[in-house]
């Protein structure tokens, strides 16, 4: 196989784009790293989420909205091709508020973002405690819960099934997926770029770097400086319970199998991805303020992962000006943006030019001149 595009990174972001390229009959080679890599996809909460995104960058809200609106068709097509159920549901989602101040702050934050977006009809609303109780008849809420915001477009999916389906889809469409293929070097060449991994060197006219936290060093080899940092997120999982939580929330999600996912922390701990007792206690304490009945549930698993964070928390999409044909795609919302990545971004990379609508996500937004 002589690839047209080499995708470095087979997590949710890289795999979504590679799947989209393969759907367009592009010869794509996908290079997955090794088991020592910090894989954000393994610790994903599985939300397909819109409400509240883009507080500091309304364009991020608009980008997420486009993807969320594509998700149903995306999930159906991928399920049919890969034969794996993504367990996608889009019945809305909740963000609980603990106390009157938190309720009013949530309302104010969402209204401010709504106003920045230019007056489109709101797809969220605030629910007081009585409305929330009617919506969740099988949940005994803790006394501190004053209400919640409800996002009409929000939903959730199984993130591991999504990743497995993307990998299966790439292969069924004729793509090449290499495991344990950590990239050592990217070098410009007459053919475009040569990529060295393992004992192999492969050439292609274009290369996409979507290697999560490993992208910073790789992007530098093609003239792109991307400021990134890891952020640890920890999640707890309970035993299987009878269905009681019909909607996903920003910190609680009952899976189709009945387990309840509890999360997630936001910790600035560098590359330390270990799970801690302190985080388990903090997550448990907050959860019991919301649903005291979960005190009887057994915790069966705890894990930690590292998010890919830019300085403003928003994605980076860029093409190298020095080495045209080298692209980078990075974000920490790979599940939510998967549908857009497999369509809009795949089309742009195949065409060799990112659309102007993505200019705001170029990493040059971080190039603030230093004071003299």
UniProtKB/TrEMBL annotation:
GO CC terms in record: cytoplasm
InterPro entries: FAD-dep_OxRdtase, FAD/NAD-bd_sf
UniProt entry keywords in alphabetical sequence: Oxidoreductase
Keyword Oxidoreductase: yes
Plastid recorded as keyword: no
GO MF entries: oxidoreductase activity
All residue ranges annotated as the FAD dependent oxidoreductase domain in the record: 5-347
UniProt name for this protein: Opine oxidase subunit B
Source organism of this protein record: Bradyrhizobium oligotrophicum S58
């Amino acid at each position: 196989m002589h690839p047209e595009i080499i995708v470095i990174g087979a997590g949710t972001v890289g795999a979504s784009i590679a799947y989209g390229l393969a759907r367009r009959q592009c010869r794509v080679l996908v290079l997955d790293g090794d088991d020592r890599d910090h894989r954000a996809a393994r610790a994903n909460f599985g939300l397909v989420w819109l409400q509240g995104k883009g507080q500091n960058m309304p364009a991020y809200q608009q980008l997420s909205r486009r993807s969320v609106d594509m998700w149903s068709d995306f999930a159906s097509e991928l399920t049919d091709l890969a034969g794996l159920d993504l367990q996608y549901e889009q019945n809305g989602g909740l963000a609980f508020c603990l106390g009157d101040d938190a309720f009013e702050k949530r309302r104010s934050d969402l209204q401010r973002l709504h106003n920045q977006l230019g007056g489109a009809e709101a797809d969220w609303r605030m629910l007081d405690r009585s409305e929330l109780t009617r919506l969740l008849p099988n949940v005994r809420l803790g006394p501190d819960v004053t209400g919640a915001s409800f996002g009409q477009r929000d939903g959730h999916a199984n993130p591991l099934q999504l990743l497995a389906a993307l990998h299966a889809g790439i292969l069924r469409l004729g793509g090449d997926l290499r495991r344990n293929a950590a990239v050592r070097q990217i070098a410009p060449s007459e053919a475009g770029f040569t990529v060295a991994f393992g004992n192999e060197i492969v050439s292609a006219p274009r290369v996409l770097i979507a290697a999560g936290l490993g992208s910073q060093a790789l992007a530098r080899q093609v003239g792109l400086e991307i400021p990134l940092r890891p952020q640890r997120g920890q999640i707890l999982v309970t035993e299987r319970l009878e269905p009681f939580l019909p909607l996903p929330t920003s910190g609680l999600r009952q899976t189709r199998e009945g387990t309840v996912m509890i999360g997630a922390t936001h910790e600035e701990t560098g590359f330390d991805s270990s799970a801690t007792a302190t985080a388990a206690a903090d997550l448990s304490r907050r959860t019991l303020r919301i649903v005291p009945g979960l005190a009887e549930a057994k915790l069966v698993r705890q894990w930690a992962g590292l998010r890919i964070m830019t300085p403003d928390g928003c994605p980076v999409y860029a093409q190298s000006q020095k080495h045209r044909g080298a692209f980078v795609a990075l974000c920490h919302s790979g599940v939510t943006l998967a549908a857009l990545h497999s369509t809009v971004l795949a089309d742009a990379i195949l065409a060799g030019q990112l659309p102007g609508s993505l200019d705001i996500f170029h990493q040059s937004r971080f190039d603030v001149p230093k004071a003299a």
